[in-house]
Amino acid sequence: MLHCQGMRAIWCHVNISASKSLHTKAVLQNTPALIPFLENASEKHQDLSAWALGNIAGDSAEARDTIIAQGAHHPLIRMVTNHTLASTTVSPTATSIGEAAYFCLSNLCRGQGARPELFANDAVLASTLQILNVHIPVALAGSDPPLVQNPELARPMLLSPETITTRASVGIASEALWFLTYMTANNESLCERLCKDGLMSLLTSAMQATTEIATPMVSPALRTLGNILAGEDAFTELALQQANLFNGLGQCVTSPERSLRLEALWALSNIVAGKPEFATAVVDEGLFPYIVRIIEYDALQDPEMVTQAMYVINNTAHHGEAMCRFIYHKTDVLRQSLKVLRAGEGQSCKLVLQFLEMMLQSHAQVSWKVEEEGGVECLEMFEYHDNEELQRISSFLIDKYFYSNEEEPI
Question: Which GO terms of type biological process are on file (predicted)?
Answer without folding.
Answer: protein transport
